Amino acid sequence: MNVEIRNGKAHISGYVNAVGRDSRPIPTATGEFVEMIEPGAFGEALKRAKNVDIMLNHDRKFGSTTEGNLKLKEDTIGLYAETETDDAEVVRAAKEGRLVGWSFGMYVGKQEMESREGKIPRRHVQQLDLEEVSIIDNRKLPCYAGTSVECRAGENIITETRATEDTANVANHDDNTDEKRAEWEKRLNDIGVKSWQNKVDALKNSVK
Prior knowledge:
single chain, 5-stranded mixed sheet, 3 helices
């Protein structure tokens, strides 16, 4: 996860989830399995999606693809996200180094469970619908270390969430901006004074 803070805004980018790779073991009511999201599943989901929200901890929306401050794509590594926001809570968490990972909510469509001798089963997710992408801070990550499953009221569909721990690389260009400006102004003034003083001393010496 890369975080750049400039002019009161946080620009956050990184990989939400990899494709073609096994996840950590995911606990469920029927037992554990590892999960592999097949290449192309995210790309197809993005083609079908009319909108995908960007949220903090799955419960605070601060933008979306339709609003223009969230960009999503699938490449050979996985689902890549890029967002920019001036949301005060998100910017504060970014400045304080509290952003620790990504998560996303999905509805699994087509899947296939693979039995593996001596190992826990592997679920191949071949088709999914992407509901939202979340940035996770250090208050929520333990809750999403595996998966959270809930049934929507009045619907027979299951929403699943997945989290990926990450290390945020933060570049804060707003940090101590006023102090830096004052320091540079002092340096420039000092240079100007010294330069003028040197000219005065040179004139005095030429008169002698």
